[in-house]
Amino acid sequence: MYSSVGKHVDMKKIGEKGASALAEALKMNTSLQNLTxxxxxxxxxVLAEALKMSTSLQTLDLYNNLISEKGARALAEALKMNTSLQNxxxxxxxx
Length: 95
What we know:
The structure is a single chain. This protein has helices at residues 15-28, 41-51, 69-79; strands at 2-5, 8-11, 34-37, 59-61, 87-89. It is of the alpha/beta class. It has a single domain (2-89), classed as Leucine-rich repeat, LRR (right-handed beta-alpha superhelix). A five-stranded mixed β-sheet has the order 1-2-3-4-5, with no helix packed on it. Helix 1 (15-28) packs parallel to helix 2 and helix 2 (41-51) runs parallel beside helix 3. The protein is globular, with a radius of gyration of 12 Å. The two termini are 23 Å apart.
């Protein structure tokens, strides 16, 4: 499921192919500021690579996801290079 309002995108259960497409879009994106999505470890790793290059994303909401320590570490590494992200919600990781 996908919904968009202005500079916010809400994507549910995007899967591996969806995560790859989203990651490619984020690398080139200049307007999306807020992203809410449901992902697991694989998707978190793919998204983390895109976050390294993202220049407009300010908020990433990963509340209530299936991300383990492996996915969280990938996201943490991406934050070392990201200059735009101001908020990331990792509450209620289910793994």
